[in-house]
């Protein structure tokens, strides 16, 4: 079984180093697009490529992962919306439990169904407390999950949810405003959560500028994930990646 990505994330956090991850939706890329994206990711120095989405309606997840692995050496981490989004060709899997919601299917139900296939996949399994935060507009993840997101101004709810996730044994936390969020997660919420947990903190949703990515890192995000903005303008990869890595040198 492959190992090492979670250990690397933990080590990077301990050393104050920030990571940039590109989110690839298998439904939105073709073969030339994958190759072009990988070339830009390598040129920019991106740290990880996440693959997945709330809904994956095509059946070429394996093909996308294989093409990414052939095109570059950047670790590929699955970010699944359901147990069916599994590819043994990736390096690792974020095994998401929606700890911000109260839908038992996404807390543990789907994990019971997927456990045998996940165990047999050979992937590095990274248990992840998934926290959906209100981004100002209905998102696919909130609709599919049938769960209300954490209100954007309720810092104490986010903090207590994150602490519970860590104490339950989650290896990472993922705070997500959702794909195409009108409002990204506020820095004060990121800072509040980061100050109360010790495990790596991933932040995504609505991050469209290098400045926002930089400020998220300064607030306490360890990994910044960008998807929609890059789909619209792939040239942002270099600028956002540089902003994230620069934050490692300026964070207190």
Description:
- By secondary structure, the protein is an alpha/beta fold.
- It has a single domain (5-250), classed as FMN-linked oxidoreductases (TIM Barrel).
- The protein is 44% helix and 17% strand.
- It has helices spanning 5-14, 31-44, 61-71, 104-121, 140-145, 155-167, 187-194, 210-219, 228-232, 236-250; strands at 19-24, 48-51, 76-78, 92-98, 124-132, 172-176, 201-204, 223-226.
- It has an 8-stranded parallel beta barrel with strand order 1-2-3-4-5-6-7-8, surrounded by 6 helices.
- Strand 1 (19-24), helix 2 (31-44) and strand 2 (48-51) form a beta-alpha-beta unit.
- The longest helix is centred in the middle third of the chain and has 18 residues, at 104-121.
- The radius of gyration is 16 Å and the shape is globular.
- The model has no long low-confidence stretch (mean pLDDT 92).
């Amino acid at each position: 079984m492959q190992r090492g990505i979670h250990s690397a994330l933990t080590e990077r956090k301990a050393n104050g180093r920030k990571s940039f991850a590109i989110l690839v939706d298998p439904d939105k890329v073709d073969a030339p697009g994958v190759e072009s994206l990988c070339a830009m990711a390598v040129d920019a120095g991106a740290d990880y490529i996440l693959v997945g989405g709330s809904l994956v309606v095509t059946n070429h997840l394996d093909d996308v992962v294989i093409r990414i692995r052939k095109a570059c050496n950047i670790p590929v981490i699955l970010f699944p919306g359901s147990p069916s989004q599994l590819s043994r060709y990736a390096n690792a899997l974020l095994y998401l439990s929606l700890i911000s919601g109260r839908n038992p299917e996404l807390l543990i139900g789907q994990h019971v169904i997927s456990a045998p296939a996940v165990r047999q996949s050979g992937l590095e399994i990274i248990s992840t407390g998934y926290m959906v935060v209100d981004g100002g507009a209905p998102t696919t993840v909130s609709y599919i999950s049938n769960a209300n997101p954490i209100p954007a101004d309720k810092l104490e709810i986010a903090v207590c949810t994150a602490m519970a996730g860590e104490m339950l044994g989650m290896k990472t936390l993922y705070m997500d405003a959702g794909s195409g969020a009108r409002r990204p997660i506020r820095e004060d919420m990121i800072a509040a959560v980061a100050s109360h947990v010790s495990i790596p903190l991933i932040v995504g949703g609505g991050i469209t500028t290098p400045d926002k990515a930089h400020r998220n890192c300064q607030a306490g995000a360890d990994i910044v994930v960008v998807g929609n903005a890059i789909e619209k303008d792939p040239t942002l990869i270099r600028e956002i990646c540089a902003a994230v890595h620069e934050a490692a040198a300026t964070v207190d």
